[in-house]
Amino acid sequence: MRIFLSVARAGQILAAARRLELNHATVGRRLTALEERIGARLVDRRPNGCELTAEGQIFRRHAEAMEEAMNAGRSEVGGADISLSGTVRIGAPDGFGTAFLAPRLWRLAEQHEQLTVQLVPVPRAFSLSRREADIAITVERPSAGRLVAAKLCDYRLGFYASPAYLAQRPAPQSLAELESHDLVGAVEDLLASPRLAYYSDILPQWPSHFEVSSAIGQTEAVAAGAGIGILHGFVAKGREDLVPILTDETIWRTYWLVYHESARDVRRVAAVTDFIHSAVEAERALFV
Hints:
It is a single chain. By secondary structure, the chain is α/β, with parallel strands linked by helices. The protein contains nine helices and eleven strands. It has helices spanning about 1-10, 15-20, 25-40, 55-80, 95-110, 165-170, 215-225, 235, 265-280; strands at about 45, 50, 85-90, 115-120, 135-140, 145-160, 185, 210, 230, 245, 250-260. Helix 2 packs across helix 3 (about 25-40). It is elongated. The protein starts with a helix and ends in a 6-residue tail after the last helix. The model has no long low-confidence stretch (mean pLDDT about 90).
């Protein structure tokens, strides 16, 4: 069971073997033996790694429940808490993931030597039911599925340009004047959610001629002088190469922390969610 969970979390037999300090052939044989005993194929083994089958995803939930029960028993009988172990993967929008979580989340992994924290800050949606991530940060509360969602915070977006751009073209004084400026936008057909089309709150369209599929990429393009963009306030804050414009026009969104209900009692998932909530609460002013 321990070997199966290690393979499921690492996504590779070799990587799991290294973590377990076992020979990779031994890991492969024991995984095969487990599948034979259960009577189902749990893992698809491919040249570039392993992926759980549908049966493997179901079995993982039960295996993790057994793991948690064992840890709880050891803790109760031994009179001491069991250190966190295993892997927790967090999928997040690249703005929040890169600019906020990446500089902070590593400290949790530093506190627990047996815990691996994986942060995937990319502009896409993650399937929690297929275990693409254990925790997802989203910009809308999910309305379907066996998911647990908690509000993290509201965050502000605004219009920004670089000092170099504004030196050549005076800042617009109204939304209507944006039409005569170079605009930096997102690649809309690649947006993970319609809520990420920020301009739609206040404008009928955003006719950009340069589009970047990530929030961080848009930020860097605007800072380099490519034009005016709608950027996250907590990302732009304090940067001398970004100037807020049209400051009366503000766009608001919300971050939600979401995980599958089967992970509700998994200690390592609870520890990561608690850490993220605490980090946001400690710096809530940054987002508003």
